[in-house]
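User: Fold this; tokens only.

Assistant: Input:
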Amino acid sequence: MSPFLDLWSWWPQTSLVIARAETADAEDLATIHADAFHRGWPADDFVAMLGESAVLAHVIRRRAGAPAAGFVLSRLAADEAEILTVAVDPRLRGRGLAGRLLDEHVKDLMRAGIRNLFLEVESENAPALKLYARRGFATIGRRKGYYKSASGAADAITMRRELPPL
């Protein structure tokens, strides 16, 4: 990670830039993902996904041209989409970045005609569960022992949000 990300502690939130992710962001995304999850995805996987027409991804940056500080990535199929991953640099969590990023991502999904949005989240990830509940996601299922966790295995909570047509 870039050392200037520590400067976010004083940077005004109104200056944030949210944009579509590009293949040039793959290294940043891989680093953030590895720092955020038990098993990170390599940059090559991000390059491949970002090159797919059925994938929509956004990044959040301190300013244009700065390294990504967080991202969200979804796969689209007909009028449905699944959020595959959301991650924010662990040093920058708790500042509302994931919420702002998710809000912009959902707007783009709606513009693309998505009506149903799904995701899975680790049952032990209380901040993510709170974020999704605040954004209108409802629990629709549970997969027992789906994720490897520090305590052995954790359930996956499946969530859904219906999006209004534009």
